[in-house]
Structures are given as C-alpha cells and as structure tokens.
Amino acid sequence: MRKLILFFLFLGGAVFAGAREQWVTGHVFICGTMQAMPFASVWLLDPQTGEPEYAAFTSVDGWYDFGNVEMDRAYLLKVTAPGCETVTKKIKPRYDANVQPNITYNIALERTPDAGMLMPAAMYVPAEIAPDAVTIEDVYGHIPGVIYEDGFFTDANGANVRILFNGYVMYSSSYEELCELVTAKDIVSIDYYDLSDTDSPYYAGVLDFRVNIVISNGPENTELPIESTFWDI
Predict the structure, then answer these.
(1) Is the pTM of this model over 0.85?
(2) Residues 6 or more apart from 39 whose CB is under 8 A from it?
(3) Is residue 127 part of a domain?
C-alpha cells in the first residue's frame, strides 16, 4: 500500500526540486472550443538536454497539476495527447507573489485531420474478471493485459499504465477515502485506453474505473478557455 500511495503522490510532482517555487496548474483544451482534452501528457523539459524536470497528466476535464515548479528559468514545454498535434514551445515561468494559491496556465491543442473519437480499446466488468473480489484493490490483479505488482501497473511491454476513477486522477488522500467508500461491487466497468501510439506519452495506457459515486478534480470550465501565452519566450 505504501508504494501505491507514493505512486499517486508522484504525479504532478517535480522530477527536479528548485529554489523559488510556485504552484502551477491549468487546463488542456481543443483550440477554439470548450472541449477538454483528457489523457494529455504535459512536460517541462530542460531546454538544453531535453530531460524531463516536471510532468503531469490530464483528467477527463483536461485539468493538469504540476505542483510546485521552480520559477524564473526557461523550460521547453511539450504537450502531447491522443489525436492532437504536439505542442512544443519555450517558456519561462515567472514568480508572482500576488497570485495565490496557484498560477493557471492553459494550453490549447489542435486536432489532427484524421483524429477520431477517443474510445477505450477494451472494457471489462469486475463481476466477470474478478467475481470473488471484495475491495477495489482485489480487482487490480485480474485485469487482462495489465500487470499489477508492488503498487504499479504496467502493460505487457513493461510500460507504465495509469489508473483513473471516473476519468479523474486520484491523489493519495482522495484515493484512501475512495477505497473506504467503494467496494468491488460499486465498479460498473473498467475501460482501458491504449495511448502507446501517442507522441511521448506519460503513460502507455489508462485504466479508467467507472464507479457509481461522484468524483471531481480541478475547477470546472464554464467559459471558453483562453490559451495562456504570458510565459512564452
């Protein structure tokens, strides 16, 4: 369980810890629409080496959360998503003491001409694949094509797979609460999305557990999102 919690804490955290930091979040959406882009990989790379320093992954509402980011230095922002053109640009996040608790940086993506609807590659019913399961975690080891070991999920090729609940990223405290509220019988279905063909995916696949409770994540978009450009250099 400890490793699983650490796994949930890593998403949105820093690969590199810096000095002057500020919380950075935002929405990834389709340009000119209110359509959120789920399962987008958002990277802040070292502009010289291309090595990842921060990484995040969007929920069904397009919300990503880097956590604390070292400010006042240059990064190469790279955003990839299924059926979308890759965005790559140089940015320099600037510290702003007047903004609390976090700075919102929205990112617009363009759909590729041949992009279809984002659909699961497979769907599973827990009652069929794990009829004796009692808890959510009892189901983990019975999902076809996915290996669960020591709190981590991988596909047959050893690439990382992310689990979501009703399309949302769950962090450690929320995950623990969910496990107390929901049993295996509350899982309606498990949808598997194959992201392996996406450019530089954070995860090669997503397991979305559809459960019969309401789950929310970041703030809901009620207006047409505006692409953020104030850090562009």
Answers:
(1) no
(2) 57, 58, 81, 82, 118, 193, 195, 198, 206
(3) yes
Q: Which pLDDT score is estimated for 115?
A: 81
At 157-190, the pLDDT tens digits run 999 999 999 999 887 778 888 888 889 999 999 9
Q: Note every long-range contact of 102-105, with CB atoms under 8 Å and residues 24 or more positions apart, other chains counting.
A: 102/22, 102/23, 102/24, 102/25, 103/22, 103/23, 103/24, 103/25, 104/25, 104/26, 104/27, 104/228, 105/24, 105/25, 105/26, 105/228, 105/231
**3-class secondary structure, 69:** strand
The total of structural domains in the chain comes to 2
Host domain of residue 137:
122-211
Domain with 74 in it: what CATH number?
A: 2.60.40.1120
Q: What is the mean pLDDT of residues 226-233?
A: 90
- Same-domain status, 141 and 54: no
pLDDT given at position 100: 79
Quick one: CA torsion of 228, 200, 45, 96, rounded to 10 degrees? Answer: 30
Looking at this protein, which amino acid is placed at residue 122? Answer: A
**28, 81: one domain:** yes
Phi–psi pair at 201, nearest 5 degrees: -70, 140
